[in-house]
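hey so u asked for the seq, here:
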Amino acid sequence: MAAPAKSANAAEVDHPEAPSSVQNLTIGKALNLGLRKAMEDNDKVVLLGEDIGKLGGVFRITDGLQKDFGEQRVLDTPLAESGIIGTAIGLAVRGFRPVCEIQFEGFIFPGFDQIVSQLAKLHYRTQGEVKVPVVVRVPFGGGIGAVEHHSESPESLFAHVAGLKVVSCANPVDAYWMIQQAIQSDDPILLFEPKKLYHSGALKAPVDTAATPDPLHKSRVIRPGTAATLVGYGPSVKVCLDAATAASGEGTELEVIDLRTLSPLDLAPVFESVRRTGRLIAVSEAPSESSLTSEIVARVQQECFYSLEAPALRVTGFDTPYPPAKLEEHYLPDLDRVLHAVDRALDW
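ran it, structure tokens below
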């Protein structure tokens, strides 16, 4: 199955005139407006991170928020992720709802001990007496021509930690609502955001700010199909959708599921889909070893074994450190690699 030629006008989408509550947003702008709404609704919401105030963040997700809400609620911090997370935990214990920005996913590891040893465990350690409603925003994934520490996908490490919830947005609607739902939750939540899609015009979409959002921890079928099931999250969702569009042009209809929540995994829609299609391809930029795609495949093999017409397959990053920028196009799952996996599954 071959990938079609890209249209120069693929990003141009016309939308009918919308009500005043609907805005056409990128993922980055949706996150910005979601943070703004959360801060307007609750004066206990505070933001902290490196360069998030005056600069508005490296990716400008917090642009304008310090100007409008002040330096007491949008705090520029030193370059010390352990201090950022530790301060957020202290603020949460004192009744605030802090939102931390980790500048790049590779910088989260100095704060790993605070997240795993304190943030994830404090509620349980105190037998439920203490709540730590901390949100950690993590721009993740490759595709921006950067190097290691700026292009990685460490989400599986955190999905493995009991006491944490981990979610990932793949479109502007989810970006707008997920950040608000995470802030409203009493649980510590890591939100992994696909940085290469922050300002993508191709993904710009109408967001109804007056709508009722989907539940936070539920996966979603975003394209129905019958031939095989593609499962992704964050940046890999777009790759899955592109593959489904290409396959449809050749008469093959692929079902696409956006996981949305990485811990706890909501795999019921995946099981239901695989029982109909008989085939699964799980897609992620993270290395394949001991990953979320490993867990998805294992669970599908357990629950859907007699429905499978082919082995469950994975399309992932490779089990190597993230490569130099010139090699990342060979490292990341792309349209051709996903379509090759579809061919393998269908030809089995």
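The longest strand covers residues 280-287. The two ends are 14 Å apart (CA to CA).
lmk if thats what u needed
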